[in-house]
Amino acid sequence: MGFHRIAALLVLSIFANAQPVPTWHLTRREHFELYSQGDDSAARSALLWFEQLRAFYLQKTGLPPESLRPVRVINFRSAREYQPYRLGLASDAHFIGTENQDYIVMAALDARQFPTAAHEYAHSILHAAGLQFPPWFAEGLAEFFSTVRISERGCTLGGDLPARSQFLEHHAWMPLADLIASPADSALRDNRETAAVFYSQSWALVDMLVLSPQYALKFGELITALTSGTPATQALPTIYGKSLSLVTGDLHAWTAIKHLPVPLSGIQVAAETPAPKSVNVSPLQARALMAEMLLAAGDLERSRTLYSDLARETPQDAAVHAALGNIALRQGDNDRAREQWKLAIALGIQDATLCYQFAALGDRAGVPEAEIRPALERAVQLKSDFDDARYQLALMEKNAGHYDAAIAHLRAMRIVAPSRVFNYWTAMTDALLQLDRRDEARAASKKAMEHATTAVERARATQLEYFAVTDLDVQFTVGKNGRAELSTTRVPHATADWNPFIEPGDKIRHVDGALREIECSGAVTRFVVDTPEGPVTLAIPDPGHVQMRNAPSEFTCGPQKSTKVAVDYAITNSDGLVRGMQFK
Q: Does the structural domain 506-583 have CATH classification 3.40.50.2000?
């Protein structure tokens, strides 16, 4: 056989054994989107099952519908396709909950895997409810909820899980203390056999705690203790009044009996709606989906590699650059994160949180406000109730002298975090003062005082209220060198007769009378004023430091025509010092 013929046969053999590249499809319902490599009928059935699970949890837990976010389900064609994306060696499915998206990732999804889907969706419910449990309880509870069966005739929960109960019959159990103290990163869950022990025993324990008459009545107390951080090794003996060895004995006895499912009443199964149509997902979109999933799972290097390839192929895709920025941030490269996010914003990213994070990074790096402001404005434009972004914009506008804009942002905030409520009201007061809105400023300063927690904050609130009822003015004082100096002071708001020549410490007296004479013979000019109590001689050492009102353009020394005057003067050891004189 010639070489060329051997080569041709080899190529044909390779192509004959090669697996076709799987095609991804997207099928949507109201609360779920399913990316699948399987057929459409399986996808439609799975979506209906997820919608029924959602209705079940809403009806039985009382969770508000808005608390359950849409879930993205990713269904691979087989375990072989799923293998590169496993979170653990023994994991055939997993749940990932991020700030913005929940994921359920499965190796396959047909009717046989519906219990697995129910298990992972239980994790989504716990995540939505903000409940954090130790691993044995979270996994045991998810396994317990995997037993749910929903049909038009009704709903059941609990009962035997043959794969779990039969495994426990033929394998050694973990000591209960080891099981309930097992951490999330325990190596036990990386080995299929030890993982099976962990999951099986966790299911059996939760099943008993929920359904056994000896334990069920105190299940709520157990949840309270675990969510408060009490170790299970302490919570179980305390709540149930039994040692762990006695609980282990009860658990063996409970598991030896094959319990029947518990029927639940009041479950309304929604009527099946017309089957949604699936759409093809392009290879590029599929790669972006895998990159997104890896990023959500924390596999930063593989995700960065995929996104970098996508950035070269689709440089105008804002979402790709946003993801690269997220990866850079988590890897500690703030400059790279800011660079990628700036590009994502320029390309029109529709992510308010990203815009705010870009601004926060820029602020810490000393980036000019002119670059930060558009990102904050974009965040508020995309999400009008973005309180964090509005607060930063308000401070920025106030510092720039745009006081009306600052007040508008502050008042548009729905919730003021306790950590910033004092600063919120001081910023509000300051902006209102700058606009001379005194009554509003004083009311805001009182709010600041209500939330002041330190002596420094209370002093600041007091100062702001003082500013709200006074005006800034100037007055003459005597400096250290004995010379008169101008200094700033505060006077009551709208004071019409403020005299800047009255010095601190002056003992002021007011008299009404008639100007009799002006004596100019000495070094100091003196005014003699006739008053009802008799003549008063008042000195004017410096005519430039007397407030004269309605005074003639010039004075003539000597006797005067008894012009009526009102005089404010400071009492001294000799003559009074004129501080102000009004001619009537």
A: no
